[in-house]
Design a protein that fits this description.
Elements: E1 6-10, H1 15-26, E2 30-35, H2 52-56, E3 64-67, H3 73-83, E4 87-90, H4 97-102, H5 104-120, E5 130-134, H6 159-178, E6 182-187, E7 190-191, H7 200-209, E8 214-217, E9 222-223, E10 226-227, H8 228-240, E11 247-251, E12 257-258, H9 259-269, E13 275-278, H10 293-299, H11 307-322
Helix pairs in contact: 1-8, 5-6, 7-9, 7-11, 9-11
Bound molecules: nicotinamide-adenine-dinucleotide.
Nicotinamide-adenine-dinucleotide (NAD) is lined by residues 10-11, 13-17, 35-40, 52, 69-71, 91-93, 95, 110, 114, 134, 136, 187-190, 196.
Length: 325
């Protein structure tokens, strides 16, 4: 009898998804990745870390990859039938708040229609034990209190946060109607290898590695930076743990750090790096630490990467890759 757990990972070729795939392979799971190979990147030019082939090319022979869009129900249905998943982790979506603000229709199609299409096919799957929806800390808007708990007020400040919150409600509603078990996770400020987007830790590292100053836009701005391997582990625990049923979990490091602290960690690793401070970007919600006590208690989630450790590992990764640019 085949006892390997079968996972269906939408968006598995992406930044977080590719780390989930590697983690699941280490756990001996059988994996189908469903991905359209649409890479949502900031309009700052081609970025080779966003090339999905680079992310998982060494394990292509160990996973099944279906190239398809969530809005194409026929391809999606076929892929689900063939996989007969025990668990679905749903990441595929536009992941950028800035982009969603300027392309709200596209964001809605990606986040809402994609999720709804997928949910509509779940009743047909007799093997399915859990559907995990990957939401975002952007559903909270400004954090009501620090650390922000899952039940805190949610007043998103961006189209992206609003759509993610709406998708969470659709997941819950669908589960109430059709009895599909789910868990929802809210990651935040994820950083690490293969991020196709120039998020803040990567910008700091790349500037320092190129001998340019590290520009800190708002030195007191605090984020709960989370190394992508911890994020991936937290999401997988939410799938596998029986107690996660119909629950929502913050998944982060659980410890805020300011942009200045992050910049100083980067500077400590790269000789000669200089830090310069500037005004903060006021369009972003005021955030900070997320409470991860629920994830620790119920899932046994225990993030392994301090910001120092995560930045060091990410720095090594970038050093190797940037050498050839
Ligand atoms: N990166 C972060 O800091 C962060 C924080 C919180 C939540 N999230 C959420 O995590 C998820 C993954 O984010 P990421 O940073 O890995 O993004 P990513 O862009 O690297 O990965 C998303 C993947 O989904 C695929 N995809 C997108 N739309 C699709 C569609 N309609 N059909 C099939 N495949 C599609 C893309 O091709 C890509 O491989 C997203 O839902 C995002 O909102 C990310």
């Amino acid at each position: 009898m085949n006892e390997r757990k079968r996972f269906f990972v939408t968006g598995g070729m992406g930044f977080i998804g590719s780390h989930i795939v590697r983690n699941l392979l280490e756990k001996g799971c059988e994996i189908t990745v469903f991905d359209s190979f649409i890479q949502y990147v900031e309009p700052s030019g081609y970025d080779r870390f966003a090339n999905p082939y680079n992310r998982l090319k060494d394990v292509f022979d160990k996973i099944k990859i279906v190239r398809g869009n969530l809005t194409d129900s026929n391809t999606l249905r076929r892929a689900l039938y063939e996989c007969q998943p025990d668990y679905i982790i749903h990441l595929a979506a536009m992941p950028l708040a800035n982009l969603a603000n300027i392309a709200p229709e596209e964001a809605k199609d990606s986040i809402i229609s994609g999720t709804t299409n997928l949910l509509c096919l779940l009743q047909e799957l007799s093997s399915l034990k859990k559907f995990v929806y990957v939401s975002s800390s952007m559903v909270y808007g400004d954090f009501e209190m620090i650390p922000v708990k899952e039940e805190a007020i949610k007043e998103p400040k961006s189209v992206y946060g609003a759509l993610k919150l709406c998708a969470e409600i659709i997941v819950k509603t669908y589960s109430n109607l059709y009895g599909v078990d789910y868990a929802i996770v809210r990651p935040t400020a994820v950083y690490g290898p293969y991020d196709g987007n120039k998020r803040v830790i990567r910008i700091f590292l790349e500037n320092a590695l190129r001998g340019e100053p590290i520009q800190v836009k708002g030195k007191d701005v605090a984020l709960d930076f989370t190394y992508v391997k911890d994020t991936a582990e937290g999401i997988i625990l939410a799938a596998l743990n029986k107690e996660s049923s119909r629950e929502v979990f913050n998944i982060s490091r659980g410890e805020e750090k300011t942009l200045l602290e992050a910049a100083e960690i980067v500077a400590s690793l790269i000789p000669g790096a200089k830090v310069e401070c500037d005004e903060k970007d006021s369009s972003y919600p005021s955030r900070g630490t997320m409470s991860i006590s629920k994830a620790k208690r119920i899932l046994g989630y225990s993030p392994k990467y301090s910001l120092e450790k995560g930045i060091k590992e990410y720095c090594e990764f970038l050093k190797e890759r940037l050498g050839g640019q």
